[in-house]
Amino acid sequence: MFDFVRVYLNFKIAASDGICGALAPISPDLFVNACPRFFDGFFVTLELLLLSSVLGFLIAVAVVLARVSSSRFLSIPAHAYIYVFRGTPLLVQLWVLYYGLGSMGAEGLGPLWPFFKEGWWVGLLTLTLNTAAYVAEILRGGIQNLPHGQIEAAEACGMTWSQRMRRIIFPQAIRIAWPAYGNEVILLMKASALVSTITVMDLMGQTRTIFSRSYDLSIFLYGAALYLVLAGLLTLGLRLVEARMTIPSFTQPKSPR
Amino acid sequence: MTSQGTAGNDYLSVNNIHKDFGGLEVLKGISFGARQHEVVSLIGASGSGKSTLLRCINLLEIPEKGEITVDGKRLPLSPSGRGHRHITNKRDVRLFRASLAMVFQNFNLWAHMTIRQNVMEGPVQVLKVPKAEATEQAEALLARVGLFDKLDAYPAHLSGGQQQRAAIARALAMQPKILLFDEPTSALDPELVGEVLAVMRDLASEGRTMVVVTHEMGFAREVSENVVFLHQGRIGEQGSPEQIFQSPQTDACRKFLASVL
C-alpha cells in the first residue's frame, strides 16, 4: 500500500516535470511558469474524482438496494437521501458541510474536527455523497428496466434474493446503466470545480490562484484545456470498461406481444 | 367429472386453489392431480386462468387459498391474519420451487449469459453442483435438445425455437420432479413450433411428469394422459384426451374446442 502511494507520488512528480519540460520550448512564458501548479491542481482534481466516484458507487449500490427494497424502513430513508442530495445544489452542500459544520469548531465537533477543518476531506465527502445519490438513481433505472421475466426465471429455479441480485439483476443493470453512469462521471468532474470554493487547490483553485497573480485571462484557457484532457482520459477509461463488459448484441429480450 | 381432484397416489396434487388480483377472482377453487410420469394439459380460452394456475403451482403467484403437494411434500404456505396464506419459510419455498422447473412463454433466458451458462446457473448456484460437473451436464442437455453447436451463443443470437429449447435444457438441468410449461410455443413463429414440440414429446415419452398450459390441441391430444379444461376460473371439464376432444360434456368446452380446432 505504502509502496503504491510512493510510486504514485513519484509518478506525479515525474509526469508534471516531464510534461512541463516538454511543453516549455513551445509554450508562452506565462504557461511555463504556471505549469507545475496546473499539474498540482490537475492531480488534486483527478484524485478527488477517482476516490469519490469509487466510494460513491459503493454507497450507491447500498442505497439502490434499499431504494428498491419492499421494506419501507429501507426504501423511505433511501428515497429521502436521494431526494436531498439531488434536490440541493452541490455548492450549498459543500458550504453547509464546510462552513456550516466547520463553524462549530473544535469544541462543537470534537474528534470530527480534524476531518471537517480540511477542505479536501469535506470536498471528498460531499462529492461522494452527491454522486452516490445520482448513481443510485441511474442504477435503479437499470434495475427497473430489466424485463420481469429475467427475475422470474431466477425465482423459479429457487435462487435467493442475493443470488438474484448478484448473478442476474446487477450484471444486467450495470450494462444497461453504463452509458448514463459515464455521463454522471463527466458531470461530476466538472462539478468538482466547486470544491475550490472551500479552499481546495484543485485544478480550478490553482487556475484562479495563477490568474490572481497575472490577471491574464488566457490562464483560464489553459485551465479549460486541462479539464478537457481529464475528460478525454475519463472517457477513454469508461470506454475500456464498457468494452470489457460488452456482450455481443446484449439487448433487451424482445417482448413478443 | 369436475374438480373431484386428488387421489392419494397423485404425484402432484393441487387442491382448492383460489387466487384473486385486487378483487378480480381469477381462480375460484381448482383441484386436479397428476400421477408420476403423466402429462397433464391445461387448456382453455385466454383469461380462463390456466397460466395463473401454473404460476401458482410454483409460487410465482401466491394463492390466497388452497394447497399444493408434490411427491408427498406439502407446499409450505400457512394462514396469515385475514385467512390469506403467506410464505412462512423462504428456504422451504426455494427448495420447493427448485423441484418444479418452469418453461416460460417468453423463454426468459438470462440475456447476459451464454446458453451453456444459462443451463449451468441453477445447478451451480442453487443445487451447489461442482462447476465441472454442471458444465458436462449442460453440454449433454444442450446436445440433447440439438444445440450442441450453440453452447457459447448468447440468447439474442438464437431463434425463438432455439431459445425455447435452451430454456427446456435449463429446466431439465435442475433435475426437477415436475416440469411446468407455460404456453411454450405461443411466442414462436409457426415454423418453429414443431422443433419445440418435438423436444417436449421426447420428454413425455421418457416418462417425465409434465403440466403443460398449451394452445396446441394436437399436442394435448396426442401426448397427454389427462386434459383439464379451465373455464372462467373453474375446472370446466377434465378427463382423458379422447373424452375431452371427442365427446366434451359441457357447452363451454364444446364451444372452446370448436373455436380452436
UniProtKB/TrEMBL annotation, chain A:
SUPFAM superfamilies to which the protein is assigned, alphabetical: MetI-like
Keywords: Cell inner membrane, Cell membrane, Membrane, Transmembrane, Transmembrane helix, Transport
Location of the ABC transmembrane type-1 domain: 42-238
Family per record: Belongs to the binding-protein-dependent transport system permease family. HisMQ subfamily.
Subcellular location: Cell inner membrane; Cell membrane
Official protein name in the record: ABC transporter permease subunit
Membrane topology qualifier: Multi-pass membrane protein
Entries under Gene3D superfamilies matching the protein: MetI-like
PROSITE patterns according to UniProt: ABC_TM1
Organism: Devosia rhodophyticola
Pfam family, any one: BPD_transp_1
Transmembrane residue ranges: 48-68, 80-100, 120-139, 176-199, 219-241
Keyword hit for S-adenosyl-L-methionine: no
InterPro entries attached to this UniProt entry: AA_ABC_transptr_permease_3TM, ArtM/GltK/GlnP/TcyL/YhdX-like, MetI-like, MetI-like_sf
From TrEMBL, chain B:
Annotated ranges, domain ABC transporter: 12-257
InterPro entries: AAA+_ATPase, ABC_ATPase_HisP-typ, ABC_transporter-like_ATP-bd, ABC_transporter-like_CS, MetN_ABC_transporter-like, P-loop_NTPase
Top-level taxon of the source organism: Bacteria
Pfam families recorded: ABC_tran
SMART domains per UniProt: AAA
GO molecular function (one): ATP binding
Gene3D superfamilies: P-loop containing nucleotide triphosphate hydrolases
Subcellular location: Cell membrane
Keywords (A to Z) from UniProt: ATP-binding, Cell membrane, Membrane, Nucleotide-binding, Transport
Main location: membrane
Membrane topology qualifier: Peripheral membrane protein
Alphabetized PANTHER family for the sequence: AMINO ACID IMPORT ATP-BINDING PROTEIN, L-CYSTINE IMPORT ATP-BINDING PROTEIN TCYN
Family from the record: Belongs to the ABC transporter superfamily.
Name the UniProt record assigns to this protein: ATP-binding cassette domain-containing protein
Organism whose genome encodes this protein: Devosia rhodophyticola
